[in-house]
Amino acid sequence: MKDVTPIADGWRLRLPDAGAEAGSEGGSNGVPDAVRNAGTGTVPAVVPGCVHTDLLAAGLLEDPFLDSNETAAAWVGRADWTYGTELPPRSTAHERTDLVLDGLDTVAEIRLGDALLGRTRNMHRGYRYDITDRYGRDDGTALTVAFTSAYTEAERVRALVGDRPNSYTEPFQYIRKMACSFGWDWGPTLVTAGIWKPVRLEHWSTARLAAVTPLVTVADGAGRVEVRLEIERTASGRGRPLTVRLRVGETRVAAEVPAGTDRFTVTADVPDPELWWPHGYGDQPLYDCEVTLLDGGTDDTSADAGAALDRWQRRIGFRTVTLDTAPDEHGSAFTLAVNGEPIFARGINWIPDDVLPTRMTPDRYRRRLQQAKDAGVDLVRVWGGGLYESDDFYDVCDELGLLVWQDFLFACAAYAEEQPLRSEVEAEARENVARLAPHASLVLWNGNNENLWAFRDWDWEPELAGASWGEGYYLGLLPRVVAETDPTRPYWAGSPWSGSWRHHPNDPAHGTAHSWDVWNSRDWTGYLDDVPRFVAEFGWQAPPAYATLRRALSDSPLAPDSPGMLHHQKAADGNGKLERGLAHHFPPPADFDTWHYLTQVNQARAIACGIEHWRSHWPVCAGTVVWQLNDCWPVTSWAAVDGDGREKPLYHELKRLYADRLLTVQRRPDGLVAAVVNQSREEWSGTAVLRRVAVDGAVLAEARLPFGAPPRAVAEIPVPAGLLPQAGSDSELLTVDAELPGGAAPARALWFPVRDKDFAYPAPGWDLELSTDDGVTRVTVTARTLLRDLLLQADRLDPAATCDRGLITLLPGERATITVRGWDRPETAAVDAALSCVNSAVRAAARAGEPVGPGAR
Question: Domain Glycoside hydrolase family 2 immunoglobulin-like beta-sandwich: where (predicted)?
Fold first, then answer.
């Protein structure tokens, strides 16, 4: 059997030498004196890891996530770096020894002693070198990996292929590297280098499994696993027959591989497999899939367990996935179906969770993805400016029932199709399509992010003047790679993309659409203007949690435009858009705390406006993918979970918006309706209670109306004229409550006839009760007045505290309980100070200087 020796210990990172450009503590491109003068010129290195994390550990780099330290770290990405270690003495009796490097970031020369093994130019591929004749048996052998700055390589390639349009100033499209290393409108510019995936020695004889790609299908209730194998042989193994054993759960098959054959397919038929479903639709059974390569033919007595040469194992799931893009009376669809069940995708966009991705761990993937599932998300889009993530990511998605939409790694730029890029693009695509094939959660390959749209709308076409820009990848190379490597999954050319050049790439009536004009230039009520077939990106910004800001920034005082806040706002005119977005609904905030609260409210309101509208139009609209779930550092952004992992009010709002059952008030041509959105597998029926309510809680009119929404369907309840608040009223609202099964609190929808700044909110009043049990505090708020979007900011109680609810609107006399964890000093006064509501914000802004007292603000 193949032996594996990890090469994880003894690594050193060589610092830039004394001849490198210096600065006064560096300058933007210079190496700081502290680094140039550091001891022996090397520091310990962690592999897998990166230069930034090693410098941080050595105390030679300030945390780039704090204040404006990012700027002072810019020199790291422009320097060249060398990693080195000693391989252990050779002690194997195997015929062959390979050095395997699963991932190098990015431009590197690998040497064993004085011998050059190879050069790499792609972060998204693995590399293997036969070192049998170079690897001694007696003494250790020096292994070095010398990295050239990604900037140097990008500028070299740009000089070869010529300038091309880019949404940012950094040259990320000229190198096959995580694009957002070079910064984005939510991320810092921290251009990494390093050995970012494991290194090992593989010792083997006769033959090994060079590639294993299981293609899983289901037809007529029977499962089939067709495993495509690539086999590498030594010289002595070329003339020998081999045996492949395939086990899928309890199903076992064996087949003989003829002598000299290096590509082979073995198939297992699995009767009546349990189907894998996205969560909410069924269970997620996973089957062990194991391939063993043995020496000798199937009739050879040597073909026993002792003759095993290599083994591969993953977990697979049985399901079908199709993408319906058929034309209809509304345009052309974009509807995913799993096991024949059409799905409204409740999605989020995923960016790398850390701009230094080697800090990602299996536990951190699980925490973040569990947050997604707990918010009702069932689809995660892995965005094209990031990574093909670790198998740990997809393993968790398999287990949690999260569908994965995987972009190929092209985003917001024109990509040259000439060498040296083209061959790298094809190699990385083939490797990653094959690597991710076992994962049941992966349901769609997408060619790029926004590049087809950009060609048409962002003035690329005249600037390119006929030069290549990536279309040949998205419409030619990549669909061919998917069809040849894994034809069990659909491919889509881009997001947004209408399906062909017959339609505008971002035509909402066809395929996928991105809705960014709303955030960039309009009020969020603009989401109501159309019904796209599938909304793959839309979002609204808000700052991170207060405790996250206080950890990351030393600004005193904090202000929307204080230096640290501005440095951690990367979007073009981001604060201006936040301000204009608030102005549509609220008076100018009276202070920073009010601004912080209201921007978070406005983010949640914006996303709610879009999702409620689009979900109410299922099946015409078949999915919403919010930009974005997560952040890669502390920043004002579109994320629902901030860079420290804290959940914004938007996160809790998603729990309501993405619940199986959603109640919402929507406009239709004939008037207002209560849309009953039922994505559960059972009918949702009962009695809806509609009330016209005065601001003081008095019920002015009421109706009890039956409703019934079939499974996976939407029903509508027309609002009777007598229930409608008077047009322009600043003191009435409509409430709709609908019974939920299982004794849960009714679902509720609210409709206000005017915007918050025009509504006559009363001075808020509430009563508090606290109870503590086993370290968990339950805060019960009883409303003495209407309370609009009441929010307990748990991190203001303690940076480690969390709560289970976000924005809550209560009518007079109603109560709500909020569960707080991680707070060991429960005090009513502290809770009162950490509570905010729209009433207070609007009144404080409108009447500056009004006294604010506990429970009456």
Answer: 223-319
